[in-house]
What does this fold into?
Amino acid sequence: MQRTATPKPEETQPVAALTHEGTGAGQGHEHEQVSELGLRSEPPPLEAQAASDGLSANQSAVSTAPSASAPVIERVYRHRLPVRISHWLNVPCLLILIMSGLQIFNAHPALYWGDRSDRDQAWLSIRSMKTESGEIRGITTILGYKFDTTGVLGYSDGSGRAFPAWTTVPSYKFLGMGRQWHLFFAWLLVINGLFFTAYALISRHLTRDLAPTGKDLRGIGQAVKDHVVLRHPVGNEAKRYNVLQKLAYVAILFVVAPLVILTGLAMSPTIDAAFPWLLTIFGGRQGARTIHFIACFSFVGFIVLHVVQVMLTGFFNNMRSMVTGWFVVRREREEAGHEA
It folds into this structure.
């Protein structure tokens, strides 16, 4: 007769134990294996060591759990796709609009109020002047006060021009080309702005995320103090815009941007013929040009502050959120527990 080898208990213990405990179906042959294993009097070495140390499974899990003081890392979907697309379209549009606008300004580097361009009545002028010694200096005049701005404004790199070459598009003096660049990207910015505004209204992004609440406005004083000392929101507060961000975005979207567009249209003779009331609103073509210039540099100031804040509050985290939409928030474990 052919003899059948009986498996050793040590080799079958893990399978039998899993079958009995995991399924609760210790019947037939598997049940017999469990009964046979029950005859063993010595626990496995690992179980014996655990027993001698007085450790249980739960105690071991507690010992490997994260520390109570460790921060909780949370990923928040902060910027939806339409917001990100609009944001990145604005970057080249605004950059080229500003630089081509400075090219246009260089053709007549003075600003006035009203409808006349009298050089003696300019409230702002940037030009080069020759001193008594024959030296050429760049002079910026604001409300009658003169400032020597040689090397930056008025005269730089051996050239007499209001804004230096590196700030204009094109870099050389070419008024016609500057106007073409300016008009093309102006309409692109308008289309993008209309798209974003429509999305913000339809999706309630405007009322939900951008419009400041009464609570926000009551805390504006503290928000200003926090920003002055570079104390930025953390934890749950970092998930949403603070009151200063909301006010800045609303001002740009509903005040500065419309001013830039309307004053730009008011400087067009064709638009003036169709809508003469535009010139009346802004007090004449030169008044519209001045307001256009001020609104432009309001954009410049906003962009500078925006970039600085992005760098101060976590450059890579902010950039990732504007590329992928996901923003990482670090919170204290106690704060996360209260929220739950």
Summary: The chain has three domains: 1-42, 73-109+168-339, 111-160. Strands lie at 72-77, 110-111, 124-130, 136-142, 145-148, 326-331.
